[in-house]
UniProtKB/TrEMBL annotation:
<dbReference type="GO" id="GO:0071944">
    <property type="term" value="C:cell periphery"/>
</dbReference>
<dbReference type="GO" id="GO:0016020">
    <property type="term" value="C:membrane"/>
</dbReference>
<keyword id="KW-1133">Transmembrane helix</keyword>
<feature type="region of interest" description="Disordered">
    <location>
        <begin position="202"/>
        <end position="247"/>
    </location>
</feature>
<keyword id="KW-0472">Membrane</keyword>
<keyword id="KW-0812">Transmembrane</keyword>
<feature type="transmembrane region" description="Helical">
    <location>
        <begin position="254"/>
        <end position="276"/>
    </location>
</feature>
<protein>
    <submittedName>
        <fullName>Uncharacterized protein</fullName>
    </submittedName>
</protein>
<dbReference type="InterPro" id="IPR051694">
    <property type="entry name" value="Immunoregulatory_rcpt-like"/>
</dbReference>
């Protein structure tokens, strides 16, 4: 009789713990608004820093999350912090570049880490790389890749867009997928005479690179130097497509159902062991 009571209590405890973990995981996943990822990478030196931010719709208490990190060659996890700057413990698994974080009392998680090997040189001032966002499928993801020069950019699939700002190239992606990225330093420039009928071209050129002016006579002509017109077209036609809001995302890490199932299996195993001992 005593063994029966003990086994019953153990089963109840396991079921309560399993239900608690399931509900907590489900609540956390429903609270994920999205993930913002910023990759600042220098292809010339093959070094970059990634800022990986998870956004929650409310403040999370006593929670745990497991998720994959982008980029394969992660050299060092700098820190994992919350919305108030608090530092949280984590476990990083190098084999699948995933991280498990225990956190409390925060509505954001920010993971900062160093990378290398993000792109390979495939020609003179030309580089290519793969960005795999497919593990984040079903989640609202926003990615920025910042490159320290003016590059012509192409991606496959091509549902990305490019901006230029103060000598930087910024690639923006909002759809989780596997991307092949090719960049090539812009080597050619065109010279045009600034007039009142070329307002758009003049404005775009000032964003891409500082204008070069020269005075040769009282009737001076102002010339501007800009990257190829094809790059300018990409900028002007796609800058309005950036989403302004984030919506609830999908499942992160281990499925809550699987967690609950594991707990139940453990409870049954304990019960069988106790019965066999009788």
């Amino acid at each position: 009789m005593r063994k029966y009571v003990v086994s019953t209590l153990l089963i109840v405890i396991f079921l309560v713990l399993g239900t608690s973990i399931y509900c907590n995981a489900q609540s956390m996943e429903d609270s994920v608004k999205g993930i913002d990822i910023k990759i600042v990478y220098d292809p010339y030196t093959d070094y970059g820093i990634v800022t990986y931010e998870i956004l929650f719709s409310n403040t999370m208490e006593n929670a745990m999350i497991n998720l994959p990190l982008v980029a394969d060659n992660i050299n060092n996890i700098i820190n994992v912090t919350g919305s108030e700057g608090q530092v949280f413990p984590y476990t990083y698994i190098d084999e699948n570049t995933s991280i498990t974080i225990l956190f409390n009392n925060t509505n954001t998680l920010t993971i900062t880490y160093e990378i290398s090997g993000f792109m390979n040189e495939v020609g003179i001032n030309a580089y290519s790389g793969i960005l795999d966002l497919s593990p984040l499928s079903g989640i609202n993801v926003s990615v920025e890749i910042v490159l320290p020069d003016i590059f012509n950019v192409s991606t496959d699939p091509d549902n990305s867009y490019v901006e230029y700002d103060n000598g930087l190239t910024i690639i923006k992606i909002n759809n989780p997928d596997i991307y092949a990225i090719y960049i090539e330093k812009s080597l050619f420039a065109t010279t045009t005479t600034a007039t009142t009928t070329t307002t758009t071209a003049t404005t775009t050129s000032s964003i891409l690179s500082p204008p070069i002016t020269s005075t040769t006579s009282p009737t001076a002509t102002t010339t501007t130097t800009a990257p190829p017109p094809t790059t300018t077209t990409t900028t002007t036609t796609t800058t309005t497509t950036s989403p302004s809001t984030l919506s609830p995302g999908g499942t992160l890490g281990l499925s809550p159902f699987m967690i609950g199932l594991i707990i139940v299996v453990l409870a049954v195993a304990v019960l069988i062991a106790l019965l066999l001992r009788r």
